[in-house]
Batch of 2 targets.
Target 1
Amino acid sequence: MTTCDYIEGVKREKTITYELSKELTEPAVLREVAVMPGIGEVISIRSAKAHLSGLLELVAIGREFVITSDGQPKARVVPMDAPARRKVFPGAAAHLRTMPMRTGPTGEELIRADRDGRGW
């Protein structure tokens, strides 16, 4: 950059160059994130709106966030390729083992008794 000084003629200003740090710096969005037990990393709706691009960059590398409004969880932001969270169904046999044993007549016995009672 050059400037013109009428007294001294044309002189050059020093240009200052800054080197970028090689260290990874923490994105501003991480300063707004809190951890809630049982929920995970949470961020308020205002902070999520203010830091949306940084939040999406973190989600793209695999992080998950819960967006809160008035302290209540409202939405979960997850990567597109993340598998859907589902409850694992242990199967009917495991469920039936938890049921109490029934004693009494079987269905076949009830039908036979009903037919016999009608006199057919």
Target 2
Amino acid sequence: MRTFSLIGFLAGLIPFSSFSQSCIDTWPGRTQNLSTLAGWSCSGGGTSPTSAGTYTENLTISTMGNNDVLITNFTFTLIGNWTVNSNAHATITVPSGVTVTINGNFTDANNNVTFNVLAGGHLIINGTLTSNNNTVFSGGGTITATTLSLGTASCGSPCPTITATNCSTTSGNFCSTTVLPITLLSFNAKTNDKDISLSWSTASELNFDHFDLQKSDDGSNFKSIGQVKGHGTTNERHDYSFDDNFPLIGKNYYRLTSIDFDNYRETFKVIVQDYSGEKDFLISPNPSDGKALALNFNFDSTEGTVVIYDNIGSIVESFQVNEMGEVTFSNVLKNGIYFAKYSSPSFTKAIRFLVSQ
């Protein structure tokens, strides 16, 4: 099942249908959540997204009024640039448990903006974070950027953990550079007949343990599909590869997270690869303990059912497939051979599995 999922978020975003359209803030001095963006007005027929998703777009908040607060209250990934043209004392808040990832540049075009990243919240900018004078960083979360380009800036109490490969500021050293565990040269994907081949290269590695390779069907909700061991500390180029043997029909989103021996983590930009192979259905684990099974599909399977048969063809139990892709048996299955048969109007397949306790 496709269990992997940026959302657009903002009013103030340029709608996807046209770069010439823009949304205008109509709530000065108020707090606005991403899930209630109907309070913003959009010119040119644009609409404000209110749920998680992935957007390949350049987004702009045309005007945040004085003392406006924008709360990014759900996780999203933006493949593009985000520009904020705000008035004095506007605040952008990333709550606990929310990760905002921008695979582009984040530009605050004016002054007096507060970035409030709360403990457990994460703002990741795989590009340049540019902000003018009187920028304030607050909260106990994390802000990571490739480059920080700031005018005057200060930290509240607590101050988020702020790291960047390159850092320019006139405000002292609260913004410090960190030597990252790896230098990533490339990350690519290629579709084959029955799988997707992923390859990447590093120019150097420092105290580096391994890569966690993650996958999503929407660019927002990622799951780990494998780990690849690193080379410790080296200044030589190293090439890596991994085959996704069960790609999803449609768009597959991939990202790499590097993890060093001190558990420092860095997540890199998302790449997208299309796949148009045949539908397939797998179960795991096999052998099973007889208590539950994980159902894995490379397509939207929620219109189907799974029936469990014993080795003489008698029905043991049946399930409507849900989004979790898991089934739990009412009674623990006895040791022996069973069959799991998935059936829908468009696809049917039976899989033999063993229960061994």
